[in-house]
Specification:
The chain has 160 residues and is of the alpha/beta class. It contains seven helices and five strands, in the order H-E-E-H-H-E-H-E-H-H-E-H. The longest helix has 17 residues, at 6-22. The chain is globular. The relative contact order is 0.16.
Length: 160
Amino acid sequence: MAWREDKFYFERTEQLAIEAMNDGDDGFSSILVDENGEIVMEQKNEAFTLKEPTAHDTIELVRRAVKKYPPEFLSQCTVYALMEPCVMCMGALFWGNIGHIKYAVSEETLNGLLPGGLEIHSREFAERSPKPMHSEGCVPERKEAVEIVKTWVRSLGVQV
């Protein structure tokens, strides 16, 4: 498969995030795309299902990917995430040797809907990384993805 536009990959993260919410988990997801544009792995957030608050979609994706693929392969991959990866997820990406990350909704947007986040942004982490990392948000943010995040926030009983 040849590389497609970002929209294609973000639409898949949106579908998976909706599935995650339908499963009772937080509405987030990530996919791993190889250097040829092939989706080689998908992951929904499973924090509630696993009763593990650190089971963010990106961390679980990295945990699975490092067991399946060598570091050289992963260094050529891109992670597409519905939500900007938190600092914990960025740490997993760093140690997993995945240096290219694209996301549909920024941490600023999430914190505007649900205050209390760490407010340490992925681009700051990437800039301070001793090995090459690039974190890129969708500009403008995908309206569909923002609506999914709003739906998730409402499911927590927060009015948006």
